[in-house]
Structure formats: C-alpha cells, structure tokens
From TrEMBL:
PROSITE patterns: SAICAR_SYNTHETASE_1 (PS01057), SAICAR_SYNTHETASE_2 (PS01058). GO terms for molecular function: phosphoribosylaminoimidazolesuccinocarboxamide synthase activity. It catalyses: 5-amino-1-(5-phospho-D-ribosyl)imidazole-4-carboxylate + L-aspartate + ATP = (2S)-2-[5-amino-1-(5-phospho-beta-D-ribosyl)imidazole-4-carboxamido]succinate + ADP + phosphate + 2 H(+). Its EC number is 6.3.2.6. The keyword Ligase applies. It comes from Marinobacter albus. This is Phosphoribosylaminoimidazole-succinocarboxamide synthase. Pathway: Purine metabolism; IMP biosynthesis via de novo pathway; 5-amino-1-(5-phospho-D-ribosyl)imidazole-4-carboxamide from 5-amino-1-(5-phospho-D-ribosyl)imidazole-4-carboxylate: step 1/2. Pfam families: SAICAR_synt. Residues 7-231 form the SAICAR synthetase/ADE2 N-terminal domain. SUPFAM superfamilies: SAICAR synthase-like. It comes from the Bacteria. The gene is purC.
Length: 237
C-alpha cells in the first residue's frame, strides 16, 4: 500500500490518502493542543506513544466485538485505517466527575457517577464543541436515531472493556471521548483512543495520567503517558 497526498491535518493527527480508495494513513504528530488550540506545544515522542497506545486499545476493542477503523501499524507514528464517513458528534462517557462536567454543573471533581453518564457534543471548534442531544442530531441530519442508538451501545461496550483493563493495571478510567463513522452501513469506531482523549487516574493516589497534565501544566506529560502504556503492557521504542 502506498501513502499519497495529505487529505486533512487536524490538531494532533494528519490523514493521508493511499492508493487504496478505502484506506487512509493516520499520522500521529508530536503536536499537542488544548483549549481549542489556544495552548500548543510539541512534545517529543508523543506521536509514537499515541500511535502505539491507540493500536493496542483498538486491537483490544476489536477483539471484544467493537468494530474499529484500525487495520495495523505502518510505522512508529503511522497507522492504516479504513476510510469512514465520519459522524460529527462526539460521544462522552464519564465514570467519575471531572473536566467540563464540573465546570458546567458546579459539582466537585472525583465523584463516582452511578450509573456512568453519557453526553453528546457537536464537533465544531469555532463553537467550542457545544453539548447537543439525540433529538438535535436527528433533526439536523448528523445521524439517524438508529445510528445514535448503536453509537451509545458501542460507547458503553467500550466502557465495560476498558474500565476493566485499566482497573487491572491499577488505574481508573475517569472519562473518554469517542468518534464514530459509517462503513458499508455499519457504525465503526474511528479517530483514536489515547491519553489525549480520555482521563486516567492512578487508582491509589488519583494522580492524573492523561492530557490534563498538559492542560493544567503538571509536567511529565509524555513520561506519564508511557507509564500508563507500560502498566497496560505496551512496548514503546
Ligand atoms: O472536557 P470534557 O470534560 O467534556 O471532556 C470529557 C472527555 O472527553 C475527556 O477525557 C477529554 O479529554 C475528552 N475530549 C476530547 N476531545 C474533545 C472533548 C473532550 O478528547 N474535543
């Protein structure tokens, strides 16, 4: 398979066409951004760490019956993925209160949420990804009711698989964001799963081990991502 021209450059990843019309190459860059691109930095090794982290998680999810776009690693910073028709809605599950939930509702960080909560956000940087709901998504044609049901079902299935995986490795999966797309009539998990798009805390100390280290200037961002990976059994270069 041959990598061709760049199709799109996001804040941390770029998408390249290939000679196969049904496959893209995702390039994980060292660029790190937060607050809708207001805070930006290059973090050495981040592209490699997130690419390998994502590959490991996508393979676990696929094995548990969650269809994903991931097909394989191409290099230490590149992966081959299926082309998806992306749905512009982000699905967020929270097991513990943190982040925008605390800001929006004035609740304290660190409360266990039983049952886990489920929220939808419109993918739109200019509008700062506003919160939406199923009714808006259907009325505006972002996704059908059936597609939204399937996205919710898969997002919770991911929670069952990953909560257990992190728990066994001494960590808490606090929350995470997923993006889905369509492929041959099926809903398929797209984008990435890495410490950039979820919150992970140490089970004992509640040390933050995800992108909040970057957002909050806590330091050792990539070293901590690597520690999360190592605890899960991921080998980095
Ligand atoms: O900011 P908020 O608390 O709503 O984020 C919930 C979860 O979704 C966090 O793990 C965050 O990293 C992730 N997220 C993301 N990309 C966004 C919004 C949220 O990865 N655009």
């Amino acid at each position: 398979m041959e990598k061709r021209e760049e199709l799109y450059a996001g804040k941390a990843k770029s998408v390249f066409k290939t000679d196969d019309p049904d496959r893209f190459v995702l390039v994980f860059r060292d660029d790190t951004s937060a607050f809708d691109g207001e805070k930006k930095e290059q973090l050495n090794r981040k592209g490699m760490v997130n690419n390998k982290f994502n590959a490991f998680i996508m393979e676990k999810l696929e094995a548990a019956g969650v269809p994903t776009h991931f097909e394989g690693l191409l290099s230490s910073t590149e992966s081959v993925v299926k082309k998806l028709d992306m749905i512009p809605v982000e699905c967020v599950v929270r097991n513990i209160s943190a982040g925008s939930l605390c800001r929006r509702l004035g609740v304290e960080e660190g409360q266990e949420l039983t049952p886990s909560t489920y929220e939808l956000f419109l993918k739109n940087d200019a509008l700062h990804d506003p919160m939406v709901n199923e009714s808006l998504a259907v009325s505006f044609g972002w996704a059908s009711a059936e597609e939204l049901d399937r996205m919710k079902e898969l997002t919770y299935k991911v929670n069952d698989v990953l909560k257990a995986l992190f728990d066994e490795a001494g960590m808490l999966l606090v929350d995470y964001k997923l993006e889905f797309g369509r492929s041959n009539g099926d809903i398929v998990l797209g984008d990435e799963f890495s410490p950039d798009g979820c919150r992970i805390w140490d089970k004992e100390t509640r040390k933050k081990m995800d992108k909040d280290r970057f957002r909050q200037g806590l330091g050792d961002v990539i070293e901590t991502y690597e520690e999360v990976g190592r605890r899960l059994g991921i080998q980095f270069d």
